[in-house]
Write a structure and sequence with these properties.
Layout: H1 2-40, H2 53-65, H3 73-79, E1 81-85, H4 90-94, E2 100-103, H5 109-122, E3 128-131, H6 149-153, H7 157-174, E4 178-179, H8 202-218, E5 222-228, E6 244-247, H9 249-260, E7 265-268, E8 272-275, H10 288-295, E9 301-306, H11 310-313, H12 321-329, E10 333-336, H13 342-357, H14 363-381
Parallel strand pairs: 1-2, 1-10, 2-3, 3-4, 4-5, 5-7, 6-8, 7-9, 9-10
Helix pairs in contact: 1-5, 3-13, 3-14, 7-8, 8-9
């Protein structure tokens, strides 16, 4: 009798264990199926990007009226900010009304798809969804590989176009619509970032850049030429140090050619420059002189490089002043691509709003920047 009870207990135990294994296996199979479905999802075969009814309504209304009067001061300032999004802040950061968001390197297309879709769902005004696939550091290296810029510099222009078209398609599949690339700095043979520049020859850099721009924009991905006025590849790493450089016309030439090719934006660097572009002893990103030199031949979007970099941050004792100076210099968009703290981003927005109200920043600069940003978005999303 005792033996029969023990056998029955053993049977129930093993049946229970089997049930747990079957249920667990089913859950794993379903998760795997869902993940694979997400991984293979390609929803950008056309040039349409879905952002939800609120965003669609805003684009329709703004693009029809073509007036930034639909936005208040704080909303306009928010459009001038691009900040970093990850899984911890996607809800709070993407609902701030920012102009754009930047994503860290992640392990698969599926992760990007899910996070970008979640971000879009929070956005009232459509976002610039950004990364920097440029031909040096590859944020998608865990699941895709591409040649670096130096390797592309040895290709003919049609090969560069086909190579970068593949890069653009990958970004489009994941939901990106803006790439912080191409790098237009010349190589001088002693590069801080080996392989990041197309060539030592400004004409080669120019032709490869034009092929890059056309390939991306044919896929409806905006590109941002960087880093005006040049020399960031060869002088110093301004992520970690300040530096000076003498700029020549050769350094500026690729930017002129990119503008002629219709580039969507140009990024300012943090070098203190002399020569053809004199930044007046200040980092170029916060120099009215440097931005004005760019504006001589370009009237589109102007962006700073990441405002946390030492090249600009170390110039200031009062760290808040760098944001005020960047706007007064004439930048349309400030990159806070190292900042994941939503409260810190809100603090920068509040700081700029206070500076406008106290006349430290001319409100006309905010209006003009917001107009350029929203006109660019109308062209992208309409």
């Amino acid at each position: 009798m005792q033996k029969q009870a023990r056998s029955k207990g053993d049977l129930l135990f093993h049946l229970g264990l089997l049930y747990v294994l079957v249920v667990g296996l089913g859950m794993i199979t379903q998760m795997s199926s869902d993940y694979k479905a997400q991984e293979s999802r390609i929803t950008y075969d056309s040039d349409e990007y879905y952002y939800g009814p609120q965003a669609d309504a805003f684009v329709s209304e703004y693009c029809k009226n073509a007036s930034t009067n639909t936005l208040g001061l704080r909303e306009k300032i928010s459009q001038m900010i691009v900040a970093k999004v990850d899984s911890s802040n996607v809800g709070s950061m993407c609902s701030l009304g920012l102009g754009g968001v930047y994503f860290e390197a992640m392990g698969s297309k599926g992760y990007y798809n899910g996070l970008i879709d979640a971000c879009k769902a929070e956005a009232i005004i459509p976002l610039f969804i950004t990364h920097d696939l440029e031909g040096y550091w590859n944020p998608f290296s865990r699941f895709s590989s591409f040649p670096n810029a130096a390797e592309m510099g040895k290709m003919n222009d049609s090969e560069v176009y086909e190579t970068t078209k593949g890069m653009a398609r990958l970004m489009k599949e994941m939901g990106f619509n803006m790439d912080f690339a191409p790098v237009l700095d010349l190589s001088y043979g002693n590069d801080v970032w080996p392989g990041r520049a197309f060539s030592t020859d400004p004409e080669v850099v120019s032709t490869k850049a034009v092929a890059f721009i056309r390939a991306f924009e044919d896929q409806n991905i905006l590109v941002i030429a960087k880093h005006f006025p040049g020399k960031t590849v060869s002088v110093a790493d301004t992520h970690i140090a300040s530096a000076t450089a003498e700029i020549t016309e050769d350094d500026v030439t690729p930017f002129r050619k990119a503008v002629e090719a219709g580039v969507a934006g140009v990024m300012m660097n943090h070098l203190r420059t002399t020569g053809e572009v004199d930044s007046g002893g200040r980092p170029a990103s916060v120099s009215e002189n440097a931005v004005a030199k760019l504006r001589e031949f370009y009237d589109g979007l102007v962006l700073t490089d990441d405002m946390s970099m030492q090249g600009v941050d170390s110039f200031y004792q009062d760290k808040n002043q760098k944001y005020i100076d960047a706007i007064n210099a004439g930048n349309d968009i400030l990159l806070l691509t190292s900042v994941t703290n939503t409260q810190e981003v809100e603090g920068v927005i509040q700081l700029i709003e206070n500076a406008v109200n106290s006349e430290q920043i001319n409100g006309t600069l905010i209006d003009e920047a917001a107009e350029r940003i929203l006109e660019t978005k109308c062209g992208l999303f309409s």
